[in-house]
Amino acid sequence: MCGIVGFAGYQQAAPVLLEGLEKLEYRGYDSAGIAVSGVNGDGEPSIEIVKAKGRLKVLREMTDDGRSVPGCCGIGHTRWATHGEPSVVNSHPHYAKNKRVAVVHNGIIENYQTLREKLIREGYSFVSSTDTETAAHLLDKYYEKDPIEAISRLMFHIRGSYALGILFLDRPGEIYAVRKDSPLIVGRSEQGNFIASDVPAILKYTRDVCFLPNLEIVRLSADAIRFYNVDREEIQERFTQIDWDTEAAEKGGFAHFMLKEIYEQPKAVRDTVNPRIRDGHVVLEELGWDDAELAKIRRLQMAACGSAYHVCMTARYMIEQTARIPVDVDLASEFRYRDPLLEKDTLVVVISQSGETADSLAALREAKSRGLKTLAIVNVVGSSIAREADSVFYTWAGPEISVATTKAYSTQLAAVYLLAIALGRARGLVDAEKEAAMTQELLRLPDKIERILEEKERIQWFANKFSHSKDIFFIGRGLDYASSLEGSLKLKEISYIHSEAYAAGELKHGTISLIEDGILVVGVATQNALFEKLVSNMVEVKSRGAYVLGVTSYGNYSMEDVANYTIYVPRTMECFAASLVVVPLQLLAYYVALGKGLDVDKPRNLAKSVTVE
Ligand code: F6R
């Protein structure tokens, strides 16, 4: 996820672009850049680009708050790295050959590798590792006289998601933009016209905006805005008045970043999964290992902290079942000091959203010091864990602002599924038919998550009844135990209600003595073979006074014979069920905390990235 802004008007563009980018820093903050079209010393049209690594203030300092870059038309970008580490060369805008075109991009061009190789054969040279530079060169290639034609040709060749802001050297004073599956708005005002990824970027200047529909192109100058479809026909678009305040706008109208990020999960999972599935096969070329290499792995050792540790717990069940490889899972803080016995041919997998968690980094270093092959599943490109691991699997969740992880967690689960399928195939346990079925179902998960989100009111209503609880327990078996751990952590970290998760079979070994009248017990049951057993555990706690909430898949209606209240999620392959049940558990935690009037995004005593031991 990155932030884009563009301005064509009657005043200097660079200060306006910097102001806009400041409001979009929540979308990315590892580097930033602007491109302004103007005239050079010889009176020729020129596009001046200034870029800086780090927070926006570095770019501000470099440009004297924009004053040193003259011109009334430009585009800007604040980056959250996906392809290529955060650096000046990888930051946007990107030029094409002869600086004829400058481009800013938000999204992921899935087929950029193939396009890049083709362009190199045609004589184009690349300076960055980004997918965006491919779009810049393609535009240069297709651009003869008509920018709209060049853009529509580009759209036929790139796959994935994109919002692009474009300047053409010989069209000073004009900005072109197009989008597919990444947001883009167009704003109009007396001072000039705008494009932006999100409303806050331009709210200071205008509330009169058009949410650009998918696959549409816009051309704007200081005094005109024109819309085109992919067939280059001019069309009319409607503008609406924004009545949100700036703070609400930054959260896209959601009350909290956590809720916004819960809602971003379908897209985050799509972005992580789709580029890695081709013709029914999992393609993990970024790891640099082929199937023969994967087949040599005899054991997996996984280490992580907090929620990422729960992903490892899920992975253990999933990978052992799918690829029949033993998987050991450790809390990173334990792993680093327990002097583990690790045999060669063990792959050590560290999972981290931030890529900077001190214990996870130490676990990775411990594994490397023993000469073991390491794989990092990380969200932040160029982070310490990503840099130090032998191979990196990036989750493309975009920046996560809320302290409690939600969308990063979902993408980590998706990463683990893809890895499990690849390992299973390499070991001859997942044949082409099974791989096709599994990948097809993976591609459907985002839609199923969307369906759960549509029913959020039921969860909200339920959560309100329990926001004054003292203790809440979660129980599950197998994969559902791992999901219960995550549900319980989410609840306690933002609602401050004491909560524990148990493997349901453990209840009788001590814990059941904690059950009192009216206490809430959440039973998670998505695994057919364990369903009856979990239901019996729910009967046990209910008969001791517990109020029981069942979370299960549609079709398991016998849950209602026991549970006081039941939440259903769509059916999926059992091995992927964790991706669905976690959503109501996140919503439950969110609404319980909201009911208590707490600061959901910044829970007490917690930090987003734990860089100390
Ligand atoms: C819980 C949460 C934390 C993190 C943990 C690891 O909602 O966010 O438990 O999962 O601190 O952080 P990363 O993934 O950045 O290593």
Task: Describe it.
Helix 10 runs parallel beside helix 14. The chain folds into 3 domains: 3-249, Aminohydrolase, N-terminal nucleophile (Ntn) domain (Glutamine Phosphoribosylpyrophosphate, subunit 1, domain 1), CATH 3.60.20.10; 251-452, Rossmann fold, CATH 3.40.50; 455-599, Glucose-6-phosphate isomerase like protein, domain 1 (Rossmann fold), CATH 3.40.50. It is an alpha/beta fold and 613 residues long. It is built from 19 helices and 27 strands. The chain has an 8-stranded antiparallel beta sheet with strand order 3-2-4-1-10-9-11-15. The protein has a 7-stranded antiparallel beta sheet with strand order 5-6-7-8-12-13-14, with helices on one face. Strands 19-18-20-21-22 form a 5-stranded parallel beta sheet, sandwiched between helices. It is globular and about 85 Å long. Helices cover 36% and strands 24% of the residues.
Strand content: 15-25%
Spatial order of the strands forming the largest sheet: 3-2-4-1-10-9-11-15
What would the principal axes of the Cα set say about the shape?
globular
Largest sheet: 8 strands, antiparallel
Number of strands: 27
* Fourth CATH level, the homologous superfamily of the largest domain: Aminohydrolase, N-terminal nucleophile (Ntn) domain
Q: Give the structural class.
A: alpha/beta
Small molecules bound in the structure, each named once: fructose -6-phosphate
CATH class designation of the largest domain: Alpha Beta
**How many structurally independent domains?**
3
Terminus-to-terminus distance: 29 Å
Instruction: Please compute the radius of gyration using only Cα atoms.
Output: 25 Å
Helix content: 25-40%
Poorly predicted sequence stretches spanning 5 or more consecutive residues: none
Continuous helix count: 19
The CATH architecture of the largest domain would be 4-Layer Sandwich
- The name of the CATH topology of the largest domain is Glutamine Phosphoribosylpyrophosphate, subunit 1, domain 1
Mean model confidence by pLDDT: 94
